[in-house]
Every structure is written in structure tokens, then in C-alpha cells.
What we know:
Keywords: Membrane, Transmembrane, Transmembrane helix. By secondary structure, the chain is an alpha+beta fold. 43% of the residues lie in helices and 14% in strands.
Amino acid sequence: MIEISATVGTVGTAGVIALSAAAVVSVHRVRRARARSRSTTRLPDLPAFPFSLDVAPVEVVPAQRLEVGPAPLAAIEPEPCAPLLLTHAALAESAEALRPTVKVRRVAPAGKSSRPRPVAAVVEASSASLLPQEALDLLSLIETMQWERALNLVQRYAVVGANLTDLIGAVETPALERLRALPESESAAMLAGYSVLAALCPTNEAYAERVAQAKAALDGRRALLLDRLTRDEDRWEPGTVWFNHPYNPAFDDVRLPIWLYIGRKEDGQTWLRLRTNWLGETRISVQGIEAIHDRMTETLTDGHYKIDADALGWEWRDEAVTPYQLEVLRSLVAAEGVTLRYKGDPYAVEVELLPEEKQAVAEMIELYDLMRAGAVAPQRALAA
């Protein structure tokens, strides 16, 4: 039974393959028959040319076999050409040819003159831009009330022969506005300011009178300060005098934060010194002092302080006043409330500056300015 079933299966498979091949052959025959019976569309014949084209047949060769050689020079025959001559007449003719052929004629409007209308004058620039450089430099110093520098600048201009008349017209009004706003106590500023105006205009008697009044006020202030100060002649440097305020302590080891004193020699050399103290129950190893006022903090001193071996809580520093320290001191005396912060190690201590201490510092700075300006003669300073 098993052999008969295998034989029948083999015969059946061969029959299916034969039937499939016959079907494929019949389909191809039908397609070929339809293609032969389809009509062929032909293009119309082109008309014959009335002339013959003597064109040799062209053989198309592959690109890799095509070789094109250069044409012989004999085959190129240049055509004769007349030389090009550039003359003035030719250039004129070419320029005339390039001109536009359309002519435009301007017609004046009816009722108006054809003459050009006069143009208004140009608006003048600001007065500052028309001033010479000398006036600009002087005006900048006057606006910032740097009277001493302004006076030096005017004297320099006078030496080189500058026109001072033009300068007085440019700076007189700003200078008077600032001088009239000064209080009567600012005698030094008034003297310097009116000295500038008097130097610019020597023939003005009013300016000369104001200069004399300011000098008289300074003389009175100078005499008052000198009478209040104490004078001590240096034992080790003959001719040197030390000026101290009466509020300054007679001994150094007292509880006074800061004070000033002035030194002056016979030749007029003047210098200002600052003394700062810390006196407490214990040492704090002061590294400097900061001034706190008007919501700002400024450094007054910076560095180590000397320590006395006999006093446990006394630390001090004595130094020449620098320009920066002088400006800090000026701001201190002008402030309402001042706090001095001693930067110690490991902690800091704050001390209030008393009004009497500020007044003493302010008067010493004022006298120092008068001495530097030459208002105090060396002979008067050494007297008594």
C-alpha cells in the first residue's frame, strides 16, 4: 500500500508541471499573433531637397578613440584691418555721440522771479565751540572752582602774549556766579577767584578791591589761628617750628583717636603730620583705621601700629599726611557723624569722633592751606 501511494504521488506532480508549461506556451503564442496583426504607423516621407548636399558621410567613433589635432597655421588667414588712430577730433566725436539726445529745458514758474532766492544765514554754533582752546581750558578750571590752577594758567597765557580780552569775555560770567555763591568764611577761595579776574582785567578796580578785601580777611583769620596755636622749636633741627592745636594732648598716651600738627622751616617748607592712637585695657593689634561717614567707608591709615612695652593697651602711629589722607580728613570734618573703626586682630573696635576733635582737625587743615599759599611769613611763624 505504501509503494502504490508513492507512485501515484509522483505521477500527479509530473502532470501538474506539464500542464503549467503548456499554458505558458499558449500565452506567448497569443501575444505574438496579436503583435503581427497590429497596424504599423509610419512617418511621412520628407520632400526631396532642390539642391544636393555634398556632405561626406561621418563615421561615429567612440569617445575614447576620438583624437582631434590642431589645425595647421596655414589654414588660418587673417583679414586685413586698418590701424586705429586716436586723435582729439575722434575723441570729441565719440564724446558727442555719447551725450544724451533728450534736451531738458527748465521753465521758471509763472509769477516768480528766476533769480536765486537768498538763503538764510547758517545758525551759529554754541558759544563753547567757538571759543579758543585757551578759553576752554580756563573755563573748565573755573567751573570746577580750581582757582589756583586757573590763576597759574592765566599768568602763563600772559607770559606767552595771549589775548586776555577774549578770555575775560568768555569766563567772567561763570566765575562771578561761583564767587557770589561762596560764603564769607571762604576767604581763601574768594581771594583766588578774584585774583583770576584781576589778572585777566588789570584795569578793573572792582576786582582789585575785592582782592584786597579777601586778603584782609585772610590776614585776620591767619592771626586768629596763629594766636591759638602753640609753637615749639625743634631741639635737634634748629629753625624748625612745630605748630600744635590747643586741643591736642600734651602727652601721647591719652585716649584721643587722631590729631594733626604742622612743621615749618625757615625757608617756608611746610608739612602736615597725623598722629593716631589706640588706648584701651588690652591690645588689639591695630592694622589700620577706617573712617565711616555719610554711608561710605574710607581708609585713613593702613599698616602696623607701634606698641609701648610699658603700656599694655597703648598702640600708636605717627606719619606724614599723604594727599589721599588729606582728602579723607577734609571729608571727615565736613561730615555730620564720623565713626573710626580700628581694624584689630582678631576683632575690630569702633570709636565715635567727637565734635571738638573734628574742629581741631579742621582748623589745622585750614592753617596748613594758608601756610602753603604763602599767607604766613616764616618770620611771623618763628616769632614768639
